[in-house]
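2024-03-11 09:14:02 INFO worker-7 job=invfold-0412 stage=load source=structure_tokens
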């Protein structure tokens, strides 16, 4: 079965491919294989590090891909691309050469709606401390993150969140104007 996957891309440290912008462009090419095809990629954006003050500014983007992979295999594919670009998972939310986050996989809610709701309702402090042992889809913090939603506006403004029923455009519009303004196009 072919599914559309959404993923967010970020970099704030040089990789073997070069600068954060070059790293992201390299990741777009590296993603394509027999079971994974990039359909659309956003412009590149500069955004403050998340959480605020956690390193240099990021270059962010978003991608829509078509895949026959399962969500877990898709995530493993993204992690392999990160590793090929020098990503080391030593500090959570620290500087990184490449961060590829699976944001949505079709209209799937994984592992189930009650678990998704639990993760989506965590306080920011709890979300900073806890890490799920399983893949949670769609990303439970998606609606809070301008650095994900603004790039997604370029490639998937009409994608509908399978739990909330809101489109990417509606979620982005609900963000504070100051949060949206922090996400600046590079070109």
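2024-03-11 09:14:09 INFO worker-7 stage=emit residues=187
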């Amino acid at each position: 079965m072919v599914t559309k996957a959404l993923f967010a891309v970020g970099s704030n440290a040089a990789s073997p491919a070069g600068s954060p912008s070059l790293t992201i462009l390299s990741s777009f090419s590296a993603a394509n294989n027999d079971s994974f095809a990039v359909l659309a990629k956003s412009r590149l954006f500069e955004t403050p590090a998340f959480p605020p003050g956690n390193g240099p500014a990021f270059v962010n983007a978003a991608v829509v891909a078509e895949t026959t992979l399962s969500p877990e295999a898709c995530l493993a594919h993204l992690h392999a691309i990160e590793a090929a670009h020098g990503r080391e998972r030593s500090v959570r939310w620290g500087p990184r050469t490449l961060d590829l986050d699976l944001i949505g996989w079709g209209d799937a809610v994984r592992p189930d709606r009650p678990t998704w709701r639990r993760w989506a309702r965590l306080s920011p402090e709890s979300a900073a401390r806890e890490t799920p042992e399983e893949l949670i889809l769609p990303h439970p913090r998606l609606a809070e993150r301008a650095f994900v939603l603004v790039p997604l506006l370029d490639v998937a403004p009409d994608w509908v969140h399978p739990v909330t029923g809101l489109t990417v455009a509606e979620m982005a519009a609900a963000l504070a104007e100051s949060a949206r303004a922090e996400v600046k196009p590079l070109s």
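2024-03-11 09:14:09 INFO worker-7 stage=report msg="The chain is about 35% helix and 20% strand."
2024-03-11 09:14:10 INFO worker-7 job finished
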